[in-house]
Write a structure and sequence with these properties.
The chain contains 15 helices and 20 strands. It is of the alpha/beta class. The chain folds into 3 domains: 86 residues, NAD(P)-binding Rossmann-like Domain (Rossmann fold, 3-Layer(aba) Sandwich); 203 residues, 3-Layer(aba) Sandwich (UDP-N-acetylmuramoyl-L-alanine:D-glutamate ligase), CATH 3.40.1190; 135 residues, Alpha-Beta Complex (Protein-Tyrosine Phosphatase, Chain A). The strands form 4 sheets. The chain has a 6-stranded parallel β-sheet, covered by helices on one side. It has a 6-stranded mixed β-sheet with strand order 15-16-20-17-18-19, sandwiched between helices. Helix 4 links the parallel strand 4 and strand 5. Helix 6 packs across helix 10, helix 9 packs antiparallel against helix 10 and helix 14 crosses helix 15. The chain starts with 6 loop residues before the first strand and ends in a 6-residue tail after the last helix.
Length: 450
Amino acid sequence: MELSTKSVMVVGLGESGLAMVRFLAARGARVRVNDRRDREALGAAAVEAAGLGADLVLGGHPPSAFEGLDLIAVSPGVPPLTELDEAERRGVPVISEVELAARFIEAPIVGVTGTNGKSTVTTMIGRMCSGLGRPLFVGGNLGRPMIEAVDTDAAMAGGLVVVELSSFQLERVAQMKAHVAVLLNVSPDHLDRYASTEAYAAAKGRIFERQEPHDHAVLPADDPGLRRLVKGRATLSYFGGAEGEVRIVDGVLTDTKTSLRVPLDEIRIRGSHNASNACAAALAARLLGAAVADIASVLREFGGLPHRTQHVRSIEGVDYIDDSKATNVGAAVASIDGLAGSKGKIVLIAGGVDKGGSYQPLRDRMDRAGRAMVVIGEAAPLLERAFEGSAIEIQRADSMGDAVARSARLAMPGDTVLLAPACSSFDMFRSYAERGDVFQRAVGELGGTP
């Protein structure tokens, strides 16, 4: 793909957008940047983009900015825009950041998608494959933009590129092909963007497009409905459930096609949802040629990622758990389920920006396992309405510090205070990570005896 002298627009100047500007400028493209935010809000990103020679059109999406272009590359956080649709109707290609990257990558691509567990599984696969002796890139929606893999040894024919892929990133792929495509699960999410759960699932399913028989589609054995999303000709492999190639057998993670056997109590990441994640990672790594010993070592040593059911502190018999990455109802439910067997009850901190789904599954779990809930952010009144008539005590907090203090007063010895918001963070915080950091600081400021 020749980019020199081409007029290319980057829409959205977040981390992926800025990485695309760097990439395009280095290849001699004439770069135009468009973002609804102004220069002040974009800060250093706008300064760097301008320094690279990009023409900045900020503060909105004027139709004139989308004229005279050869290509438009869209950052994953950009919502649907009529201006993009109009450009496509005029014949201008509109692609995602991962599609742009894929056109310059010779190495096999391993893609991981799903509603929950993507970052954990992507990281585990990368670590399990570190012993293959191949240059390795691990990133995507996980943090490091996929475009940064280009021109590294990992992107060459002998390398391996392992990436987390969101539905947003998969919406505008046209040529990208995953050698191993993993779909972990689908539950209602991002219904503020998609018309239905089916439309959301269809975006996830694009990870399987263009696969050939020598490629692998990895899916959960206990959700056969997801198999309809596989449109390519890939070889299908299943994990978990009662029939997966890699599944839990009598409390032992078992690969039925190798000697891999790891008891669940030796796997560091806890919870039934993480048992499923571990099965998926182990299967994908085996399909990529990873050694049994390397897979087993990661299962025993990987302790999880920050803000994902992360134990923060125990105070006077109460555990404080940070699962700020639980940004949808399904993830929050999985977090509660993962604590099943705890001797006490759950005091849940939830709320943020509502994503359009139902809170009924959350209420069902809390009615069984919960003691109380403290709600925050824009979704607080929606959560209060969803829990009307419940025996669960509901309190509203005006800050994370207030929420932690209220939760500490509500919890009894043996209970768990769980931050699993079931919402995105952007009403009060810059990201789920900042939300988790603020929670952890507030917990650290609590008195009491460990």
